[in-house]
Amino acid sequence: MDTPLTFSALVLALSGQLVQEIHDRVSQQGFHDLRPVHGFAFARISSGGATTADLAEHLGVTKQAAAQLVAELVGKGYVLRRAHPHDARARLLELTDDGRAATRAADQAAREAVAPWREELGEKRFGELVADLTRLAPRGPVRPSW
Amino acid sequence: MDTPLTFSALVLALSGQLVQEIHDRVSQQGFHDLRPVHGFAFARISSGGATTADLAEHLGVTKQAAAQLVAELVGKGYVLRRAHPHDARARLLELTDDGRAATRAADQAAREAVAPWREELGEKRFGELVADLTRLAPRGPVRPSW
DNA sequence: TCCATATAGACAAGCAAGCTGTCTATATAT
DNA sequence: ATATATAGACAGCTTGCTTGTCTATATGGA
C-alpha cells in the first residue's frame, strides 16, 4: 500500500469486473435488453411491496430516473404496475414471468462469476473476505457513484 | 451468501463509498472542480511519459473522451501539453504545480478514507484483504463500468 | 526511395442516462 | 377545512461518453 489510491483502484476494478461478468452471462442467457442496473431493480421489486419511489431510493437515483427505468422495464415486459391497495397515488411494482426468469438468470450468473474467486482463495479465506466486506460496506443505495 | 448478487452489491457499495469519500475529502481541500476520474488520470500522468492515447487506455475510454478530459484539465490549470521528444504527432502530458498538489491531496484523502477500515479490521486482516483483492483484481483499465 | 498502413490527436454530431423544474391527484396532519 | 407532503407524469436540459471522419506524422516493406 505505498499508494492508497491503488487500493481504491483495486476495489473499483474488482466490482467493475464482477458487474461486467454477470452482465455478460445474463446476456448470454438471452436477455440482451438488460443492463446491470436492472438486476438490482429486479432484486428490489422481487422483494415485494416496491413502488417507483422505493426503487428510486434503493438505487440512489431521482424518482424521475426510476420512473423512466420502470417504464422501460414495463415496455420490455419484465415488470407490471398494479394498483396500490392503500394508496391511490402509488402503483405497486411486480415482476412478470419474464422478470422472474431474468432475476433467476442474474442470480445464477452471479453465482458463476463468483465461483472462480472462491476457488482461487479457498472457502476459508473467501468466507473471511465476505465477512470483512460485510463489516465495511455501508448500508446505502446500490450505485456506481461516478 | 444465500444470494450471490448480494456479494456483488457489497463490493459495489464498498467501492462507491470509497470513491465518494475520497472525492469529498479532495473537495474539502479546495479542489471543487475535480471529479473522481481525475484522480486516476493524475495518477497515470504523474507516473510519466503519458500521452492522451495512453491515458485513454488507462481509463478504459475512447481517445476522444480522454482528449476531452485532458482539455478540461489543461483549461483548469492542472495539466500541461508539451511536445513529445520523439513523435511530432504526440503530446506529452505533465502535471502543473496545481496538478501535483491535487494528486497529493487525493493520495492523502485515500489514506484517510482507508484508515478506519484498517482500524476496524486490524492490520492483519486488512493485509489479508489487500492480498486477496490483489489476487482477484484484473489488470485492466480503471473504470466503474456501468 | 516510395508507398501502404497504422497511430496521435482534433473536430463534429449523436445519444443514453441521469438531472431540475413543474404539474396533477391523492394522502395526511393540524 | 385547510395546509403541507408525497406518488408519479411530462418536459427540457446537461453531462460524459460514443461513433465517424479528417489531417499530420510514423513505420515497415517492396
Number of helices of chain A: 6
> Span between N and C termini of chain A?
23 Å
Order of helices and strands of chain A: HHHHEEHH
Order of strands across the main sheet of chain A: 1-2
Highest-level CATH class of the domain at 16-106 in chain A: Mainly Alpha
Kindly state the percentage of residues in helix of chain A: 55-70%
- CATH architecture label of the domain at 16-106 in chain A: Orthogonal Bundle
Q: Strand tally of chain A, please?
A: 2
Largest contact between protein chains?
A: A-B, 52 and 52 residues
The geometry of chain A reads as: globular
Structural class computed from helices and strand pairing of chain A: mainly alpha
> What is the residue-averaged pLDDT of chain A?
90
- As an assembly, this protein is homodimer
**CATH topology (level 3) name of the domain at 16-106 in chain A:** Arc Repressor Mutant, subunit A
The percent range for strand residues of chain A is: 5-15%
Annotated CATH homologous superfamily of the domain at 16-106 in chain A: Winged helix-like DNA-binding domain superfamily/Winged helix DNA-binding domain
Q: Report the C-alpha radius of gyration of chain A, rounded.
A: 17 Å
Query: In this structure, how is the largest beta sheet of chain A organized?
Result: 2 strands, antiparallel
